[in-house]
């Protein structure tokens, strides 16, 4: 059974870089046509998709964060990572990693697009301090 | 970005009640919509994908419908374990976006 576990510092100073890692267990990060995503949630607020990476290193970033975000993947360690630079108090949130299933079913006409996040990590709280 | 608007933002209902949440997109998104349940301190949990398909193991009291811009999520008979916040999420275009959430409480 696939499991995801986030790790990283719980406290980051303002203007510094937030770095988190998501360890994948139960299957290879390279198996299947999946994306590996980051989502965040400020306390008491909704969910914000930060972006995603596949095992080849192809990325999609949320334009609202694109200038500050970098994703990477390490298939040898079966993990992927997030770096968010120049953090402010607005970046204080619970950060989740998740597996994204995203595919087109060509057996129907017109072909049908499926996408969902079916496995999530438990989340890690990051606080930005001034 | 595609904006998703959920209503209501909070809802109080009695056990056994039928509960309905709506989600509206500001662009046509076909059936590119999922529903998640999130309990306090936990990660979101996928309930419904492709607007109306129940994920494996999800109780049949949960259902979804809609296409285009208007979507509905229904719990046919509210159970104590259904107390949570529910989010819709669109995937018709990037960035992926979520509704603001509907907090469901017991009356």
Q: Strand count, sense and closure of the main sheet of chain B?
A: 7 strands, mixed
Mean pLDDT of chain B: 97
Q: How much helicity do the residues of chain A have?
A: under 10%
Give the N-to-C terminal Cα separation of chain B.
Answer: 36 Å
Low-confidence stretches of chain A: none
SS field, number of helical segments of chain B: 0
- How many strands, which pairing sense, and closed or not: the largest β-sheet of chain A? 7 strands, mixed
The ordered string of helix (H) and strand (E) elements of chain B is EEEEEEEEEEE
Uncertain runs of chain B are: none
Beta-strand proportion of chain B: over 45%
Relative helix content of chain B: under 10%
Description:
The complex is a heterodimer of chains A (130) and B (107). Chain A is mainly beta. Chain A is 0% helix and 56% strand. Chain A has no helices and 11 strands. In chain A, strand 5 and strand 6 form a beta hairpin. In chain B, the strands form 2 sheets. In chain B, strands 2, 4, 5, 6, 9, 10 and 11 form a 7-stranded mixed beta sheet that branches. Chain B has a 4-stranded antiparallel beta sheet with strand order 1-3-8-7, with no helix packed on it. Chain B is built from no helices and 11 strands. Chain B starts with a strand and ends with a strand. At the A-B interface, strand 5, strand 9 and strand 10 of A face strand 5 and strand 10 of B.
Question: Key terms for this structure?
Answer:
heterodimer; A: 130 residues; mainly beta; seven-stranded mixed β-sheet; B: 107 residues; four-stranded antiparallel β-sheet; 0% helix
Write the layout of secondary structure elements.
The complex is a heterodimer of chains A (130) and B (107).
Chain A: E1 3-7, E2 11-13, E3 18-25, E4 34-41, E5 48-53, E6 59-61, E7 69-74, E8 79-84, E9 93-105, E10 112-120, E11 124-129
Parallel strand pairs in A: 2-11
Antiparallel strand pairs in A: 1-3, 3-8, 4-5, 4-9, 5-6, 7-8, 9-10, 9-11
Chain B: E1 4-7, E2 10-13, E3 19-25, E4 33-38, E5 45-49, E6 53-54, E7 62-67, E8 70-75, E9 84-90, E10 97-98, E11 102-106
